[in-house]
Design goal:
CATH architecture of the largest domain: Alpha-Beta Complex
Oligomer: single chain
CATH topology of the largest domain: 2-enoyl-CoA Hydratase, Chain A, domain 1
Strand content: 15-25%
Number of domains: 2
Structural class: alpha/beta
CATH class of the largest domain: Alpha Beta
Helix content: 25-40%
Order of helices and strands: HHEEHHEHEEHEHHEHEHHEH
Number of strands: 9
Distance between the termini: 91 Å
Largest sheet: 7 strands, mixed
Length: 287
């Protein structure tokens, strides 16, 4: 045994401690290091600059629904990899990787419960699942959410967060846009509210379809909301765009959304607007 081995073996074993990455979160807004537990308890909002970070579906449901009132709806089964797509990886491998990382089957999760004792179905897009991209699974989950809302005579509230269509499904991804539009129309035919909450980021085919078809459009502060990239637009029109272009605040100023709501106030605001939008329907059913 060499002297190096003797020294190494003499060093006592110390259990691995949590690293700084597990204890702290670096805010993307101000760059400050925030204690992770404090950040999570604050619904992923930076206590220093109020930057709204991305949030997972289960955390969103916990923050909005009455405690113990909600259940996740089943994930619809769709044909996987219908185009046998492959780039640097096979599409089926990318799906497997995303499912292992998120614990979800696809990028849109629905849950049914109560907000201040008012029934609602909420759909949340998970940007952590392949950028929240819109494919067959997302389209079918959206339709499932609208059907559940109609069956339970309640609003459907969608939280968007997506980079747009899922390229691995090609034209089949784009076909989800008219499909979801039909789902929205069925809600309207039933006299039920369709409420959209735009979160960071929402873009591409999602922004061009069901994200802007709501009866009411809310957005979180500072969210990036766009159809296409800023650089593409500037190169096309040969002009410099405003600094706040493609943000919640810009869209509110130009009449494209109805209000910006802080994440901490979302539950109360949704409860209020649901009461207004459902008042006539509730009265008619009671009569």
């Amino acid at each position: 045994m060499t002297w190096l081995n003797r020294v190494r073996n003499a060093i006592p074993f110390v259990a691995k401690r949590e690293t700084s990455e597990q204890l702290w979160h670096k805010c993307k807004g101000c760059g400050e290091m925030v204690f992770l537990k404090e950040y999570e308890d604050n619904q992923h909002v930076c206590p220093s600059c109020d930057h709204h970070g991305r949030i997972r579906p289960a955390q969103r449901f916990e923050a909005l629904f009455d405690k113990g009132s909600w259940t996740t709806l089943p994930t619809p089964l769709v044909r996987e990899d219908p185009l046998k797509f492959r780039d640097t990886k096979r599409y089926v491998d990318r799906l497997k990787q995303a499912r292992q990382a998120t614990g979800e089957s696809d990028a849109l999760i629905n849950a049914m419960g109560e907000i201040a004792e008012q029934k609602a179905v909420i759909g949340v897009q998970d940007f952590a699942f392949m950028g929240g991209s819109m494919g067959l699974g997302v389209g079918e989950a959206f339709i499932l959410g609208t059907k559940a809302a109609i069956e339970n005579n309640c609003p459907y509230i969608i939280f968007t967060a997506s980079g747009g269509a899922r390229m691995q499904e090609g034209i089949l991804s784009l076909m989800q846009m008219p499909k979801m539009t039909v789902g929205v129309q069925r809600l309207k035919d039933a006299g039920l509210p369709y409420i959209v909450v735009l979160t960071d980021p929402t873009s591409g085919g999602v922004m061009a379809s069901y994200a802007l078809l709501g009866d009411l459009h809310l957005a979180e502060p500072g969210a990036t909301l766009a159809f296409t990239g800023r650089r593409v637009i500037e190169n096309t029109i040969r002009e410099k765009l405003p600094d706040d272009f493609q943000t919640s605040e810009y869209l509110l100023d130009h009449g494209m959304i109805d209000m910006i709501v802080h994440r901490h106030a979302l539950r109360d605001k949704l409860s209020t607007v649901m009461g207004y939008l459902m008042a006539g329907r509730t009265a008619n059913r009671a009569a």
